[in-house]
Amino acid sequence: MTNRNGVWNKLFRNKGDGTFEEIAGPAGLVEAVDHYWTSPVADFDHDGHQDIYFARSPADPSDPAQYAALYRNHGGANRSISVRLVGTASNRSAVGARLRAYAAGRGQTRQVQGGDGYKVNSYWTHFGLAGAGWADSLVIFCRAEPFRGRPRFRGVRSSR
Question: Are 85 and 102 in contact (CB under 8 A)?
């Protein structure tokens, strides 16, 4: 999600072929707001679909409803897996860990992040699987216990 003064919101979807398409309009995310401070993406309602939260500068500072908005993704037929790593000693949130999921002949890599500027990230790591019912494998790259040695999990079932 991108936004700046005088420019409408933009949301891009990865088409899977190295290109992106702009989908803010069809997703219902086009609105005239001067500036967004942050737009973290996470599965806020734990339904397997990534939602978007906006903290913004309101056009009318006296209206508290203009300070924030949560856009719930009601999803569709696509499937996903969400993973949260929990360390046993130091780095209990596994910040910095990389996860790689393979499904239907494709690989995706995610990294657990603690924050990014104004944005606070979820410690849950999300992988979209399209129509696949499971990830063929999930590999964890982390120095924290108990994840050392690159554990690999096979046949990880989707949440939906």
Answer: no
pTM for this predicted structure: 0.76
CA angle 145, 85, 159 (to 5 degrees): 145
For 145, what's the count of Cα atoms within 13 Å in the CB-facing half-sphere? 3
The Cα-based distances of 4 to 31, 32, 83 in angstroms read 12, 11, 32
One digit per residue, pLDDT tens: the chain, 160 residues?
A: 555 666 667 788 888 788 999 988 888 777 655 566 777 888 888 888 888 887 776 666 777 767 777 888 887 778 889 999 887 777 888 888 899 999 988 899 999 887 766 667 788 888 988 888 899 999 998 876 666 667 888 889 887 5
Which tokens go with 40? 């973290």
Q: Locate tokens 């063929």: which residue?
A: 136
